């Protein structure tokens, strides 16, 4: 049995909803489709479809296998495309969207290094903390912080996201140091406008989530502004280590609630599709992964 061919037939039958529909789409005879599907079921050791005279429906095993088959077929297509590209040099304009604070603090050197390696690529970078529509607005890829809400995008992690709860020594001297997340309700907290949980901060300890509604006299849609306010003693800040890691290392911001883990996540590169991925997008995403790694430079000394 040609497993690759049989998997393509299985996926086409599932998409068409009938054996005859798949046969027409693949220019095969009905008996050929029936035979390949039977051979595939024998190979996996499970019935993939429930059949009746009127309808064809996936079994539970078939539904699970369908997703794996789709991924395998995409991977095979990607491998063929990569082989076809060979050593082709990335070229053309690469349009990138990135969050303001992350890009200003960490993306510049990476762009310079990538440009030196791939001089035929022209980099067009737009900074914005809003979530852009990559397809409608013509971006090749975007860098996203935290949870990816659009399931239609391909997301690849380029670095971990570490969140730090901190305050300046001057603020703590005047207002005291919180001992539990609940204490934060009595403190001045500097709020990031695009925070997914709005004015609620969440922490974890021993498998339990602790959520607290925070209040304060400042909210902003830029982490660097909140950092500056925190350094001036205005309040408590919850921001990524890529913004305030240096301040923690210098002692100008003091970490709080060390026994509680602030909700974290990852930093991703996202792009619309893995099919026919251009060399410029593929090499840039690979470069970001290579450059940042599991422990990026902004986490140096903060991760045990």
Give short descriptive properties of this protein.
single chain, 304 residues, alpha/beta, Arc Repressor Mutant, subunit A, D-Maltodextrin-Binding Protein, domain 2, 3 domains, 5-stranded mixed β-sheet, 24% strand, elongated
What's the helix and strand layout?
Elements: H1 3-16, H2 19-26, H3 30-44, E1 49-51, E2 56-58, H4 60-85, E3 92-98, H5 100-117, E4 121-127, H6 134-137, E5 141-145, E6 154-161, E7 163-167, H7 169-175, E8 189-192, E9 200-205, E10 208-213, E11 219-220, H8 223-231, E12 236-240, H9 241-250, E13 254-255, E14 261-262, E15 265-271, H10 279-292
Parallel strand pairs: 3-4, 3-5, 8-11, 8-12
Antiparallel strand pairs: 1-2, 5-15, 6-15, 7-12, 7-13, 9-10, 9-14
Helix pairs in contact: 1-2, 1-3, 1-4, 2-3
How does this structure look, described?
There is one protein chain. The chain is built from ten helices and 15 strands. With 304 residues, the chain is of the alpha/beta class. The strands form four sheets. A five-stranded mixed sheet has the order 4-3-5-15-6, with helices on one face. Strands 11-8-12-7-13 form a five-stranded mixed sheet. The chain has a three-stranded antiparallel sheet with strand order 10-9-14, with no helix packed on it. Helix 1 (3-16) packs across helix 4. The model has no long low-confidence stretch (mean pLDDT 88). Residues 1-59 form the HTH lysR-type domain.
């Amino acid at each position: 049995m040609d497993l690759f061919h049989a998997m393509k037939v299985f996926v086409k039958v599932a998409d068409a909803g009938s054996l005859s529909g798949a046969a027409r789409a693949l220019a095969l005879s009905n008996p050929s489709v029936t035979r390949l599907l039977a051979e595939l079921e024998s190979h996996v050791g499970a019935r993939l479809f429930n059949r009746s005279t009127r309808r064809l429906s996936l079994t539970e095993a078939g539904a699970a296998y369908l997703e794996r088959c789709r991924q395998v077929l995409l991977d095979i297509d990607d491998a063929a495309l990569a082989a076809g590209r060979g050593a082709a040099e990335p070229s053309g304009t690469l349009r990138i969207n990135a969050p303001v604070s992350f890009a200003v603090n960490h993306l510049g050197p990476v762009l310079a290094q990538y440009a030196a390696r791939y001089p035929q690529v022209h980099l067009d970078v737009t900074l914005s903390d809003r979530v852009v529509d990559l397809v409608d607005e013509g971006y090749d890829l975007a860098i996203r912080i935290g949870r990816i809400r659009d399931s239609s995008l391909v997301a690849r992690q380029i670095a971990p996201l570490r969140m730090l709860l901190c305050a300046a020594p001057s603020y703590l001297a005047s207002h005291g140091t919180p001992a539990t997340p609940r204490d934060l309700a009595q403190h001045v907290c500097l709020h990031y406008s695009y925070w997914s949980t709005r004015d609620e901060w969440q922490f974890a300890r021993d498998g339990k989530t602790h959520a607290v509604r925070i209040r304060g006299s400042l909210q902003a849609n830029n982490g660097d502004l909140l950092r500056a306010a925190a350094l001036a003693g205005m309040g408590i800040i919850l921001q990524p280590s890529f913004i305030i890691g240096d301040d923690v290392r210098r002692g100008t911001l003091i970490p709080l609630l060390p026994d509680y883990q602030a909700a974290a996540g990852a930093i991703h590169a996202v792009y619309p599709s893995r099919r026919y991925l251009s060399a410029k997008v593929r090499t840039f995403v690979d470069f970001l992964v290579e450059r940042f790694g599991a422990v990026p430079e902004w986490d140096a000394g903060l991760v045990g």
